Amino acid sequence: MDYRHEYGYGYPSGPGDRRHRLPAPLRAPFEARHWAELAYVLIGLPMGILLFTYAVTMVSLGAGLLVTFLGVPVLAAALAGCRGFGSVERGLARGLLGLEVAGPEPLRMRGSGAMAWMGAVLRSGASWRHLLYAVLRLPWSVFSFSVAVTFFSCGWTMLTYPVWFWVFPMYGGQDGLQLYGDETHGFYLDNPFEITVTAGVGLLVTLATPWIVRALTMVDRVLVHGLLGPSRLASRVEELESDRGVVVDTAAADLRRIERDLHDGAQARLVSLAMDLGLAKEKLAEDPRAAARMVDEAHGEVKTALQELRDLARGIHPAVLTDRGLDAALSAVASRCVVPVSVDVDLAERPAPAIEGIAYFTVSELLQNISKHARATRATVDVWRSESRLMLQVTDNGVGGADTTAGSGLAGLAERLDAVDGILVVDSPAGGPTRVTAELPWRRA
After folding, report:
1. Residues 441/388, Cβ–Cβ less than 8 Å
2. Contact, 362 vs 392, CB < 8 A?
3. Which residues of 165-215 form beta strands (DSSP E)?
4. Within this chain, do residues 187 and 257 fall inside the same structural domain, yes or no?
5. Does residue 138 register a pLDDT over 60?
6. pTM, full prediction
7. Given this model, what pLDDT does residue 139 score?
8. Which of 49, 117, 204, 345 could be a cystine partner for 383, CB 3.0 to 4.6 Å?
9. pLDDT tens digit string along 21-49?
10. Distances from the Cα of 379 to the Cαs of 68, 173, 396, 436, in angstroms?
11. Are 115 and 242 in contact (CB under 8 A)?
């Protein structure tokens, strides 16, 4: 996961950013991002007051009414209202902070009707996280508002003091801005040195203000993401459901491929073989030589059909993988590749059969891609274990340009690996070389 984007770091950057002549610290007070973050902090105080007032009032009322049945719907309404405020807060964070946070997991109702809805709201962990956000929002918004407004106003006031210094002696009847005064003494910022120092301090405070505001909004990002988004468990369940769908689709596609290969390959040959043997049987009495010739041709068809069946069985799960492990199985695959391939498998023990199978078919498909598309003269396969991960790396010196865009074989391979918490990383610049690295979870056999 890219946490820079997750917490709002991922603001657009590109060639236009590199054309700025001013360094980032000097540009920060004038950038749109700073003003958006400042607006979020300023809006946060009234939003915090409104949300806190609503939450405390409704929850207190609901808790007080729990001695009667009315307390339950009031509490449910309080939590539902907090969820509604949460959607507004996510919208503000998205619009002003550039933070994309998905909504919480939907309510899981057991039945239908008002009672089922109230039970779902009260059981939902997301509802109570929204309530916690409502309680924490106010004290934090008061603090962040006070700090941001103080630094912003003091910085710009001191920075622009030389511009409006003339207001004091001309219209206020004073020598300048008074910092201290009593019955006998007074200290004014009224000479060039003091004015310059004041403007310099104001410049430093003004330059520091965007970074202070950004630090304050970082806390807001964490609160919004942690309390108003889906829980880690819900996200994991959704991810597993998606992965299960990928696995089911992949298995169905494999079954269709096997059925097609059997129907168009071995099955068709066996049907033809049966017909040839039937004709040979009919000719056996009247033309033994022709019958012998037809039996000989049928023998060749049997050998071809057996080879196709072996290839099909190897495509389902090769026996050498089961008997001797990845080293021998990948060496066998490499020997059939049109490009010379060196294989290095450094594993002290074997992983689970399912992981071995996925690793085998991953390398097989990558070597097929090299044979068909890479125009390479050599390739290497490296397999090793890194803590709790099984690492695969296939490299070649071909023309490069491989990617995982939708519709490519690599995209499907990446989906298969993702279904078992695996990762596929492709490094293939135009002109080569290509390096494809795959990670799989290590599971003991």
Report:
1. yes
2. yes
3. 177-181, 186-189
4. no
5. yes
6. 0.55
7. 94
8. 345
9. 677 778 888 888 889 999 999 999 999 99
10. 76, 86, 4, 11
11. no
